[in-house]
Amino acid sequence: MRGLAVCTIAIGVLVAGCASAATQPASSIAIPVPSMASVAPEPSIASPTAPSAVTPSPSSSPTAMPKALAESTLLAGIRKDAKVACSPQQSSLPQAAIAGIECHPRPDLMTSVGFYLFASQADLLSTYFALLAAHGVAARSGDCLGRSGVEDAYQPGDGTSTFIAAREGCYVASGKASDLSTQPGEPVGDGGYTFGGPFVLVVIHGATADDGKLHAWAWLGNRAEPGNPTVW
User: Fold this and answer.
1) Which of 7, 29, 65, 151 is least surrounded by Cβ atoms within 10 Å, i.e. has the fewest?
2) Residue 189 — pLDDT band, cuts 50, 70, 90?
């Protein structure tokens, strides 16, 4: 019986202790809350910026158009009446040209007409102006309609607020006329300031000194205003 009394007293003390703990006010229990200074801020997401200088690896360079494809592209664009006795030009390509096709449609009017494809508009124009400069033709000196030894854009706007890449130049050397014109590609969706290919130079070497006839033949069938050469 004494042992039972001791157990009863112990249980009573334990229950009393639990009851006492349960009745403690909530405010006496301290819950540590980290201060804002102790919380590491999430890293901010900055807009990516391009490096100041990038040196492309060789693998990122564009692959040059295969010569066979370049030649077929040229051949496909030649006007039907000009596509006579045509063959790939294997040598003496103008500087920077990828490929060339030479045709012989009118022996009475010309000795040949060459069509040359370039990788970029810049290459096309550089070669075009170099060929004309070699024969003393200055840029923006006039149009080839009824004149010789001149060069100008055949589309409006050149020399005002921008440079026009659609151009034609002509000259007479050693008693034979020549007419050169550019096909500078098509605008590619940014208001006409960037062009996609093909970039083609047409060079007509005349059989006589009459470059007016070469010009008329190059523009044969054009009904647009101001229009463009139609031979390619």
Assistant:
1) 29
2) low
